[in-house]
Structures are given as structure tokens and as C-alpha cells.
Design goal:
The structure holds 3 protein chains of 3 kinds.
Chain A lengths: L1 H21 L3 H25 L4 E2 L8 H23 L2 H20 L9 E2 L2 H31 L7 H20 L3 H19 L5 H32 L4 H8 L6 H14 L7 H5 L5 H10 L3 H9 L8 H22 L4 H22 L2 H32 L10 H4 L1 H15 L4 H13 L4 H26 L3 H5 L9 H19 L1 H9 L12 E3 L6 E3 L4 E3 L1 H17 L14 E2 L14 E3 L5 E3 L13 H29 L5
Antiparallel strand pairs in A: 1-2, 3-4, 4-5, 7-8
Helix pairs in contact in A: 1-2, 1-6, 2-5, 3-4, 3-7, 4-8, 5-6, 5-12, 5-16, 5-22, 6-7, 7-8, 8-10, 10-13, 10-25, 12-16, 13-15, 13-16, 14-15, 14-20, 14-25, 15-16, 15-20, 16-18, 16-19, 16-22, 18-20, 18-22
Chain B lengths: L1 H37 L9 H10 L4 E2 L2 H22 L4 H20 L4 H32 L4 H5 L5 H4 L1 H14 L27 H24 L5 H21 L5 H25 L1
Chain C lengths: L1 H19 L2 E6 L5 H8 L13 E2 L8 E5 L7 H10 L5 E5 L1 H5 L21 E3 L6 H17 L21 H7 L3
Helix pairs in contact in C: 1-5, 5-6
The chains are: A mainly alpha, B mainly alpha, C alpha/beta.
Chain lengths: ~650, ~290, ~180
Amino acid sequence: MLTITTAILILLPFVLAGLCLLSGKDRALNLWVYLCSVALIPASMVFAARGNGFVLSTFDVPFNSGLCLAIVDFLVLIVIASVGLKHKHPPIICFSFMQIGLLFYLDNILNPLDLSPFIHADTLSIVMLMIVSVIGSLICLFAIPYMKKHEKHVLLVTRPKRFFFAVMLLFLGSMNGLVLTNNILFLYTFFEITSLCSFWLIGFDRTFAATKNALKALWMNSLGGLALLIAVTLFYTHLETLDMREIITMSFGNASLMLPLCMLILAAFIKSAQPPFQSWLLGAMVAPTPVSALLHSSTMVKVGVYMAIRFAPAYMDSFLSVSVALLGAFVFLSAALSAIGQSNGKKILAYSTISNLGLIFACAGIGTSEAITAGIFLIIFHAVSKALLFLCTGTVEQKIGSRDIENMRGVYRLMPFTAMMMLIGIMTMILPPFGMLMGKWIALEAVAAINLPVILLLAIGSSATLLYWARWAGLLLSGSAEDVIKPTSTAGLPLLTKAPLALLCAGALILSFFAPLLFKIAIAPATEMFGLTPFAVTGLGLGLGLAGYQGAFWIAPLFVVVIVAVWLAARLANPNPSAARDKKPVKHLKPFMCGIETDKQGTFLGPMNKPALASVFNYYFMGFCTEETSVKVFNTIALIVLVFMLGVSIENSYSLGEIW
Amino acid sequence: MMLSSVIHALLIALAVIVLAPLAVGLYQGLDRKLTAACQGRKGPPLAQPFYDMLKLLTKQRALASPWQSFFATLYLFASITALVLFYLGADLLMIFFISAAGAVCFVISAIAVPSPYGHIGAQRELLQVLAYEPLLFLVIVGFYLVTGSFMLDTIAAYPAPLLLTLPLMAIVLGYVLTIKLRKSPFDISACHHGHQEIVRGVQTEFAGRTLAVTELAHWYEIALVLSILMLFWATSLWGALLLLAAAFVLEIIVDNVCARTSWSFMLINSWITGLTLAVINILWLQVG
Amino acid sequence: MLAKETISKIKELLAKAKVKSPWLLHFDCGSCNGCDIETLACLTPVYDIERFGIVNMGNPKHADILLVTGTVNHKNKKVLKNLYEQMLSPKVVVAIGSCALSGGIFKDCPNVVGGVDKVIPVDVFVPGCPAKPEAIIDGVVLGLQKLAAKTETAKTTAGKPSNRLKVKAKVKEKVKGKGK
């Protein structure tokens, strides 16, 4: 049965993607997308319940998986090469041909038996699977009304909508395959497929900016693919195996394998858009919002951190882990500082994603069981909250026509539901007792005694994080008392827009509440190889909180406090006093403008005795450092660390053993 | 046994909720008296902060925006929760985050009103948070490195005064206290009584009961920082009170001597000085 | 019984707090600054009105007492009205100096409205040109007595002249009656 479930999870989206390409009408297209969601969500839940430890080898499948793999691999690379040739883009051509050549070499020396077992699921895979399937399906459902409106908005010639959904479904299938696979060559294949999907989706609008950014994403991801293929080849030539678990156990402490590990980490960094490779993610924000939500915050960029955590036992306690930790912490701080200087909503979300991914890399680098717990928690909660925020931003953008947060001032008046969802999304990102904060807490406690520079960077970074979220949350609600009490929402949003938002919001809250149980069931098994279980679930095992050796985080009591506080605050803020016990009239206060306010809201008596609008903007630190200079500085520092890491790995690998 | 510990916890919580504002109000009253003495004046009566707060409750019910009132109440709840958890012996890092959540709620309530002055004040408040949060966090890390735990019952039970091993951290906490108490030179977002900055800065649009709520929440925040200060000499009550008195006097002297600085000076100064002192202390701990 | 007693005690305390913590808003309608200097002199250590709990907040939303100096003219009467309306009741207006009382020596100028009470209801008039700090303090104290009598649902009677009690010259009486 699990085989069928796996087939549903990986192969069904491919099939449905093909069907999407063939469907001419919207109704058929929507049907395939519904079918995919309806299939993926239960399948992933079934797999989550039963699939821990599930192993599938090449002999269990009725087709020759080795041949299929080779065909798919070369096909993908040829497509990428042809894209490069079509757009005359030297890096893409170069990287793709190098990969084709290396793949030929690898397939020559490869023993087909080494392709097996190609699926081996453990709790980490299952966690990623749930994220991809559930959040991915919700985003695809959201995309149905979104793309309908997008088609009308974008006046330029785009590819047909069916191509969009085909690529989205293809992406879901390949992500599922990527997280379930145990074979590093399959990992590489799925890695490349996701790069290609990302290219197609970023360039979907076919504007000049979209094509440019899509090519940038493709060349950087191709570089990542090349690094990964080099790693795979080096692993195979050294260890004669492609089994990830065997590679991990055999690489631990083995200095001659530092170079392939370093290459793997480099591929992970590129995929997760860490500096100096973060420009592709920022450029990818030109894509339609479901793309940003799915690929560029919840799932595809998580591939890098997933690889880092999966391979963490291999490079534990080595120079690589220290440099990964340092670089991750540095990225956490630098991306947070960059986000403070941004007013474009999607770019803020992109920098926030990069920042949190840096934090997860830092956790993977530290490598204790607490740190890995933190990393996995952060993956889960970041995926949910960030997807919610991206979808909300997309909805708001379609309504007001802008993604600048300055234009979202007072959007609660226009779109109360979306503004509330966005507010709750931001709250779940930064406040206790929700999951993201809990993950950050675990990460900070894990790092505190181990690494002083990392803790310093994380300390400043976490304060910087609050800045750009708090002002965005406040902006959404800005409005006079009349505006807030009677929001002027016009036509309601379609159900397929509201439902994913509501479900993601509920998911973030419920998952946060059940975090201790989540830890016990899903995460503790994944951290076994890193050391003693870091936390015990307190409260009679019912999940009141997590208690560790050096600290405890209470969840259920804090949730109770939050619920009571929200209820009481809502009652006290009740603008309708006749409902209150005392029927005293409530005075509506106008903002202070030194007495020269006019009757028209928000204006004061300006020059020539005419009303002038009082406007105030957030401070974006223009005087301190603009985006160009700060990005240059951060990229340089990151590049130096990476080059150092590469150099040390090469030196270790060559001096202690031969490669060829 | 569980029931008695729950009742015990509730009694402590109640005591903290009632006594903390009284203590901080007294502290503020003494502050104003001593400041007046420094300036050659007589100063208001000791109970003045209580009169101020109670007077706000007698004002007309007014609303600038329901969201402002909503988040102000959340700010109060967060501050009270953080302080109560402190005295219940919970994880200090978790308490730090809850207190930060309160600060964020306060800023959101200030931005929720479309006011130029309030908005600028709120931006400055965020910069203040950016300035003091890393410092407070490193102080907590300092506690952890010495005592081996983040849990307050372990930290408070440490046999030696933490001041001996973490003297520079106490100075760093002084920076945090100056910013939290809204004293010059770091009172850039709003100033305590008698001074104006950008009209009333972040507090401009708060009025009546909402202002009373935020003031009360601020008092609980001050109580939290002062409690962390007292942790530096947790072994002896007189030692803790001595620390408290020393901080009290030093804050007033600094307030009366220094002029208000710009936000960039505050940020750079507190980061450079604060982080350097904290790092030196931590390195000294790790080496020695 | 006990509940009633506690409630009445709390009400007493609140009433006491109302006059023990008067916050000022000082608005200069366009005076020569003579009265303003005298008003600000009250805040200095010589007169030290902070010992009564008086603080000069610049914000009408926080203020209980509005001190107005200078002549109200046609340009800033709207401003004065706006500031008065932004204050939360119970509130008290103290007009300081002869310009605020009736326009003073500028009474016949074309742009002068003449007297603050033509724009907002005034509770206390403090004469003088400039008014002495002692008189200003007396005026504020008298205003506090009136504040004690007002409740939070006092309706604003903007524009209508209210009672026209003038401050008598008896200093001792005011000192005895202050800060109930």
C-alpha cells in the first residue's frame, strides 16, 4: 500500500502535469489541480502515519528505474542547455554542458545495483513531505482564482495558464521525490528538475525583468547542480555507493571526503539563496505570488537546508560545520539588516526567508541534537507562516495594485479578512508562544555555550528581525476609529482564496500549540544520531511544554494566557459602548496635528490655506547604507568565507588521499 | 501535590501582580523627588505616579483606534506574564522573548493610529528595541554561562553573587535600564514626565485609559529589568537592594547630566560599548 | 456593605487623584510672550509647580488644564478650538493675561477676536500684563477646584461664554483652599 502512496506522491503529479498541458479549457485544468490536491494531502497523511522507515528499492518497481533516471537526467540537462543556447547565456551553457559531460562519465562507471534502494523515508523526510504536499496543494488551490485574475491584469503575452499549473504540479512531484529519496543521484535529478521548474515559473510573465531574473535563477541553480554532481561523482569514486545513509556514516571524520561534502554544502547554499547567491531569490520576486509562496519560501529553498540537515552527521565537528554555522549566523544578521532597508513587501519577505534559512544553516552547522531540533522546527513553522504571508501579500497586491508596504497602510479598511490573516501570520513569525519563536529559542539555547561569534550574530539578528515585522504589522491596521469599526470591504474574496489563507493560519496556530507532541512524534527520532534527546515533553506527556537540560519553554500555559489576553483586549477595545455595561459615549480621537487639522481626515491646513495630506513613512536607513552598498559588503564577506571553506576542503582532501 | 503547587504559583502570581506596580510606583516617586533635589526644587509627593495613573482612569472614554487599545492591552498582558513567570522561576530566555513581544505589541498599537508624531515615535521605539535587545540577551547568556542553566530557580540558587563573575554585564544592563526607563541620553522615543520629544513621541496618541494601560505595562517592564538587576546579587537581600539603590542613583545622575542624543548615536554607542563589554566578559569567563 | 464601602473609597481616591495630577497644555495664541515667560517661570525651581504634580505635557490628549495666553485672532481661533476639543473631559481652561481675557491693548485690532471665552468656555481668568507667577498659580489652583467638581461626561459648550468668575485679589484664601 505504501508503494501506491509513494506513487501517488511522486508520479501522480507528473501525470496530472501532463494532463494539464493537454487541457484546453479552464474547467478541465481546475479539475486536474483539484485532483492533485485531493490526492496529495491524504496520501501524505497516510504516509506520515505509516511510512516511517519505508524502503523502496529499484526491484520493487515494475519499470527500469535506472534507465528512467538516466533519460530524465539527460532530458533535463538538454532542456537547460537549449534554454541557454536560445538566450545566448554563457554560464548556463557552460554549466549544463559540464554537467552533461560529468553525467556521461558517472553513468559509465556506475553500477546499476548502486541505484538501490532509492527511497528510504524517515521522520525528516516525512516532515518535509507533509510540508510540500499540504502547503503545496493549498497554494495550488489558491493559484486557481489568482491566475485567473492575473491573466486579466497582465496585458503582455504570457504563456497559457495550463503551462503554469503543469509546471507547479511537476514541481510538487519532484519535491516529493527529492525528500523521499535515499539515493544521491536521484536527489541530483530532482534538484535539477526543480531548478528548471523555477526557471519556467519565474519567467512565466515573459516580461523583460521576468526573463532576466529567470535566467539568473537558472544559471545560479545550474551552478548548484554542477556542484552537486561533482559531489555525487566524488562520493561514488571514493565510496562506491550512492546510498545517502551509507555516505553519511562513512564520511564522518573522513577528511578525504571533505571536498564532496563542501561541494554539497555549496549546492545547498546556492539552492537556499544564501549570499553571495541571494540575488536570484530577490529577482524571483517578479514571479506571480503563488510561485513565490511555493518555490521561493516554503519548499524549493528548503531543499538546501534539508540537505544540510540530512548530511549534518557527516560534517559534524569539522571545519565545515564551524564555517557553515558562522556563515549561517552571518546571513541571519545581514539579511535581517537588508530587510530593514526594504519597502517592497515581497522583497522583505524574500530577505526574511534568506535570513531564516541562514538560521537553519547555523543550526545544522552547530550539529547538536538541540540545534537540529531547532532547525527542523524552524523549517516547519517558517514554511507555514511564510506561505501564508506571501499569499496574503499576493491577494493585497491584486486588490491595491502595489506590493509596497507604504501603500498597504490601512489596508484593513479595504480587506479586513486578508489584513487579519497577514497580521496573524506576522505574529506567528515573531511572537511567543508560536512555533517560529520557539524554534529560535531552541536555536539560541543550543548555541549559547558553544560558539561566541555565532551567538553574537544571532542576538543582533533576532532584534533586527522584530523591526521590519513590527512596523509592517502596525501599518496594516493604521486607520482612524471610523475606518476600523466599519471597514469598507467591497466584493468578497472567492472561497479558493480565503480557504488556503484560513487553513494556513489555522495550521500555524494549531501546529504551534501541538509543538511538543510534534517534537515527540516527528522530530525526536530524527535527532537521535546527534546525541541525547534534548527535550522532554512536560505536563504528563500531554504537551504543556518542552523541558530541556538548561531551559524550558511553556507552550500550553502561554497559549491560555494569549487566548485570555486576546479575548479581554477585544472586549476592552470594543468600540460599541452600548454593548458595554456603562453607556458612556466614546470620544473618537483624531491624530494630533498641532491643532491645524481640517475636517477632512488626515489633512491639515497647509500652504495657501489648502488642506495638505499628513504623511509619514517608515525609516529605511537610506542615510546609513543603501541596498547596493550593503549587499556588496555582505556578499564579499560571504564569498570570503565560502572560498576559505572550499580551500580548506580541497587541501584536506588532496593531502590525505587521492581523488582519482 | 500538584494542586498545592498550582495554588502556590497562583499566590506568587497574585503577589507579583499587586506588589510590582506599587514598588515601581514608589521607585518612580523617589526618582522624581531625587531629581527635583538635584535641580534645587521640592518635587512632587512620593505617591505622585499613583495619582497620575489613577487620574487617567477618571478621564472620558476615548478611542483613537480599537487596534490601539487592543494591542495596548496585549502589551500589558505580556509584561505581566513576563514578570510573573520571572518570579515563578521559568526560563529567562523565554521571559525575555515574552517581554519583547510586549514591546512589539506596544509599537504596533502606536503605528495603528495614522499620526505623524506617533509614527515617528514608534519608529524610534523600534530603534530603541533594536539597541537594547542584543544587550539584554547577552546578559542572559552571561547568566547561563556562569550557572549552566537558563532556568531562574537555578540562576537564583547559584551560591556566589553573580556580580563577581559578571561585573561588565551589570554595566551592560545599565544601558538597558537607561533605555527602558526612558532617561537621557537614550530617551528618544518618549520621555518620562516633564519632557517632550516629538510632542510625546510614541505616546502621543494614547489618552485616558489606554495611556494608563501602557503606563502600567511599562511599570511591569521596569520591574522585570530591575528584577534581572537584582539577580546579580541574588544571594543576599541587602546586596540586591544595594544594587537597586546604586542603579537608582546612577540613573538619576546620568539623566540629569546628559542631554538627549540622536537615535544613531544611541544605536551605535549601545552596540559598540554594550556588545564590547559583554564580549569581554564572556571571553573572560571562557578563559578564566 | 463592604463592597459599597470599598467602591466609595475607590471613588474618593479617584477624585483625589483627579486634582492631584493636573497636566497642562500651554497654548500661546500670539502673545508678546510676556505671559508665556511668566507661565514657564512657574516651572522653574523658584515657583516649582511640579510639587503640585503639575507637568507641562505638550499634548492635548494628555492634558487636563489648558493655559491660554495671548490674543485669539481670526487665524488661530480654529486652532484653539481644535486643541480644546481634542482634550478629554473633565478639563479646565485658564485664560492668562489681559490679552487672553479681552484682547488687552490689542482689543481694537481688526484681526483680534477679543477674549478667549469668545471661542471656548473659560473657567478661570487670570488678569495681569503680564500676569504674575503667583497669580497664575492661584488661577491654576482655582481651576483645580472646578476640575474637582466636573465629571468625565461634561459636555463641551464650545463658543458659549460660561460663568465669568474673576480671580479675587485675596491670596491667602486661595492658598488655604488648594489641593483638596
